[in-house]
Design goal:
With about 220 residues, the chain is an alpha+beta fold. It has helices spanning about 70-75, 85-100, 125-135, 165-175, 195-200, 210, 215-220, and strands at about 1-10, 15, 25-35, 40-50, 55, 60-70, 100, 110-120, 140-145, 150-155, 160-165, 185-190.
């Protein structure tokens, strides 16, 4: 039900832990500050791991964490995660292995992205469903994805995808997983800039993981 999530905290300072041992990549950005009417330099640090992607930005004042919760727990995103708490606990422990700083319960993170998903076992009927769905008009843009045998629609901060999960794994990971044959994957990716969840939950303030990682919210978004 829950797949990739991303959120930010600005409880810094944060800094890489043992940066010489880990593959942190530093980047320097030069920009003009309109408030102080002068040019400034900002440094960010990025760590890309299979478990998560971590960005320390704003000279250490903020941190952004992105992770596929089922991959974090099970090593793949085929298994279902309907209770986010164990995954967020594991994600916090993982982050603290690489980052120094104040890191509260990750339910307190301000969400920037959440992916809701569901797998449909369709067997030999999968190509017929994919073909029919490819004719549906939804959101502003649509395209077929031949590599994974499906279709996707997108509009600003929203993206909806349906595809053959077996073919997608074969295409991306170059391995065959017979157990997944006939599985149609449905994903609804929502980013903060879309404002969809704020309107749906009738909240004007920034939403947290505790707001968006609720089964009822995921179910409604998938429906």
């Amino acid at each position: 039900m829950f797949d990739t999530v991303a959120g930010i905290l600005e409880n810094g300072p944060y800094c890489p832990k043992d940066a010489s041992r880990n593959s942190w990549e530093g980047r320097m950005r030069d920009y003009f500050d309109d408030t102080d009417n002068c040019r400034k330099t900002s440094v960010s640090q990025t760590l890309n791991r299979p478990e998560a992607r971590i960005l320390i930005y704003g000279d250490g004042g903020g941190i952004r964490i992105e992770s596929s919760l089922p991959k974090l727990l099970y090593g793949n995103n085929l298994s279902t995660v309907s209770n986010a708490q164990p995954a967020l606990k594991r994600l916090r422990e993982f982050t603290l292995d690489y980052v120094s700083g104040d890191l509260p319960d990750l339910y307190e993170m301000r969400y920037t992205r959440v992916d809701y998903c569901h797998n449909f076992a369709l067997g030999d009927l999968l190509p017929d469903y994919a073909s029919t769905l490819g004719k549906v008009c939804y959101l502003a843009n649509r395209r077929t994805t031949n590599g994974s045998g499906g279709v996707e629609w997108w509009n600003g901060g929203r993206r909806v995808r349906v595809y053959d999960k077996y073919r997608e794994i074969l295409e991306r990971e170059k391995k065959a997983v017979p157990l997944v044959k006939g599985t149609l994957r449905f994903e609804h990716q929502i980013r903060k800039e879309s404002g969809l969840l704020e309107r749906r939950l009738k909240k004007a303030e920034s939403l947290k993981f505790s707001d968006v990682l609720q089964p009822a919210v995921a179910y409604r978004s998938l429906v």
